[in-house]
């Protein structure tokens, strides 16, 4: 007995962990399987079919919402990553200076407030701005997404910067490189994996958002998640399963990429 | 001639100024589309509702009164607003139970992950990260399909003969609870795992050498050491659970409202923007109290463990 005594063992923990992983994946697997269901009802299995993928593909509302999601996500993630990179450069590798703590708090503020509160706040504010300026385009959604993406983009960039060696940059400066040249030729290439990770994180966060978008969007500005929420509330067809499956594949692809990039870092 | 000290001072001032300029875009965007509007919500909570939504610019404490009280339409007397109290209580209760449930499941899971060999650890981490990155709405929808009357859970229960007719889980508080525990579980596992990974198992070994039981080692050695992760995970679950919107909308079926649905109602059919604003501020206050408790607790445990 004594030889098999493992100090890391805790009774029942492995069973609970196994249950957790099964429970985490079972609903997702069922969702994907039913996307290939030929039956119209989501409660019975009517054989294998791709017809729901086809019907989603031919649904102009779905395509519109998807394109809008990508458009908002791409613009918001890019803007957020640029702003976050600059902010990370301004808040790392320095002795504490007046306002540093304030900056940390301000950048992380969107994470501290429940989404519903931010959603309501933006609804109120933007409805005023809309009346005042008469503009009611996608700009509001892009601004909202950029703001809540900044703390997510900031996270990996800051982590990367803090682990970076200062010697190379000092060497460049010693060799009379201008600050801009040092940044472009030394700092930026070293920082690049962090920036990419931040960009992807921001893009996924933007793509996933339901609550804030639901409150900020004007008529006809559905993104894919808000469109799906509307459909689910109205009653479900396997078409939602099909859309979810494609969305899921996309997320998994991005996470895998993210993992590979952050692994190369070490 | 400027002394070396003055030159250094000037350089430092320039550096700080540059750093402010560099962070300006991020700060301005957040001020414009996150922090600033929150202040407007506070102002709106003290105004009079307009007849078609929005507000009239006239001071009124009425919204704050009606967060917990209701005025009788005939004799103007105040009484406790039972509906609001019920929703507040349900939201806080569900958020707490969700936190406890995810902790009970997430702690052993994080422990399991952290005690794997270094190579396989990454795989487990990857498996927990995928649901975390998957759209919350899709995950909620997946739960909906599982717990429906025609769903797989009821099918299994029927087959096993545990129940004779499908049990109604969907559109109950239990459904919201299951859904929230499901979608927020990774948020609990990840921070606990992060502190568990750094755990020095020589301390555990020392505990066993001193004849501690497994439970005692868990309670007196492992748990205190990973406490910062547990607290971080609890905060990460509690805050979104309290303000959850998607899960109660999809799984609660509109009947079992949580705070977010009550707030949404005020901006929709309720047409009472000041009340919606006051409720939003109330939610934020609860969150701030939880965060403050976290900051104080985290500070203390850091001191203790050096």
From TrEMBL, chain A:
Bilayer topology: Multi-pass membrane protein
Primary location group: membrane
Keyword annotations from UniProtKB, A to Z: Cell inner membrane, Cell membrane, Membrane, Transmembrane, Transmembrane helix, Transport
Cross-referenced SUPFAM superfamilies: MetI-like
One biological process term in Gene Ontology: transmembrane transport
Subcellular location: Cell inner membrane; Cell membrane
Record-annotated membrane-spanning stretches: 12-36, 70-90, 111-131, 137-157, 190-207, 240-261
Name recorded for this polypeptide: Spermidine/putrescine transport system permease protein PotC
Organism: Mesorhizobium waimense
Automatic annotation (TrEMBL), chain B:
Key words of the record: Cell membrane, Membrane, Transmembrane, Transmembrane helix, Transport
This protein's record includes keyword Cell membrane: yes
Protein name: ABC transporter permease
A Pfam match: BPD_transp_1
Main subcellular location of this protein, as a coarse class: membrane
Family assignment from sequence similarity: Belongs to the binding-protein-dependent transport system permease family. CysTW subfamily.
InterPro entries tied to this protein: MetI-like, MetI-like_sf
């Amino acid at each position: 007995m004594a030889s098999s005594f493992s100090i890391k063992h805790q009774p029942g923990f492995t069973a609970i962990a196994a249950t957790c992983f099964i429970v985490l994946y079972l609903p997702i697997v069922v969702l994907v399987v039913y996307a290939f269901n030929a039956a119209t009802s989501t409660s019975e299995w009517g054989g294998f079919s791709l017809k729901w993928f086809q019907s989603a593909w031919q649904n102009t509302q779905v395509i519109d919402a998807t394109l809008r999601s990508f458009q908002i996500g791409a613009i918001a993630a890019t803007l957020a990553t640029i702003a976050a990179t600059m902010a990370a450069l301004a808040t790392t590798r320095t002795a504490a200076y007046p306002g540093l703590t304030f900056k940390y708090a301000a950048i992380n503020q969107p994470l501290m407030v429940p989404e519903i509160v931010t959603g309501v706040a933006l609804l109120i504010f933007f409805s005023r701005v809309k009346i005042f300026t008469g503009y009611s385009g996608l700009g509001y959604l892009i601004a909202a997404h950029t703001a809540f993406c900044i703390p997510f983009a900031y996270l990996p960039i800051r982590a990367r910067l803090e682990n970076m060696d200062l010697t190379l940059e000092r060497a460049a400066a010693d060799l009379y490189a201008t600050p801009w040249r040092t940044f472009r030729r030394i700092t930026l290439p070293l920082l690049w994996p962090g920036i990419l990770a931040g960009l992807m994180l921001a893009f996924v966060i933007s793509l996933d958002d339901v609550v804030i978008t639901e409150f900020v969007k004007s008529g006809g500005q559905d993104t894919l998640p808000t469109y799906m929420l509307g459909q689910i509330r109205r009653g479900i067809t396997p078409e939602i399963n099909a859309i979810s499956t494609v969305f899921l594949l996309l997320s998994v692809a991005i996470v895998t990429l993210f993992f590979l990039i952050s692994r190369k870092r070490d | 001639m400027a002394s070396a000290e003055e030159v250094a001072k000037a350089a430092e001032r320039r550096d700080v100024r540059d750093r402010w300029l560099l962070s300006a875009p991020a700060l301005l965007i957040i001020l414009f589309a996150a922090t600033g509007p929150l202040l407007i919500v506070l102002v709106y909570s003290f105004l009079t509702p307009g007849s078609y939504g929005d507000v009239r610019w006239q001071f009124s404490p009425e919204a704050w009164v009606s967060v917990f009280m209701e005025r009788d339409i005939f004799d103007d007397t105040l009484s406790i607003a039972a509906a609001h109290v019920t929703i507040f209580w349900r939201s806080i209760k569900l958020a707490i139970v969700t936190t406890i449930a995810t902790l009970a499941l997430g702690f052993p899971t994080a422990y399991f992950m952290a005690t794997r060999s270094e190579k396989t650890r990454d795989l487990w981490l990857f498996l927990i990260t995928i649901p975390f990155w998957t759209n919350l709405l899709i995950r909620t929808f997946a739960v909906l399909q599982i717990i429906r009357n025609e769903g797989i859970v009821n099918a299994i229960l029927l087959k096993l003969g545990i129940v004779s007719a499908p049990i109604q889980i969907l559109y109950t508080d239990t459904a919201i609870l299951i859904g929230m525990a499901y979608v927020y579980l990774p948020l609990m596992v990840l921070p606990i795992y992060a502190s568990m990974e750094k755990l020095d198992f020589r301390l555990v070994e020392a505990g066993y050498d001193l004849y501690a039981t497994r439970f005692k080692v868990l309670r007196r050695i492992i748990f205190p050491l990973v406490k910062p992760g547990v607290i971080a995970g609890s905060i990460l679950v509690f805050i979104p659970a309290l303000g959850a919107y998607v899960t109660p909308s999809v799984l609660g079926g509109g009947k079992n409202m949580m705070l977010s649905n009550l707030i949404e109602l005020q901006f929709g059919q309720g047409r009472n923007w000041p009340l919606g604003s006051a409720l939003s501020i109330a939610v934020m206050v609860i969150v701030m109290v939880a965060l403050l408790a976290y900051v104080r607790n985290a500070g203390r445990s850091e001191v203790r463990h050096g």
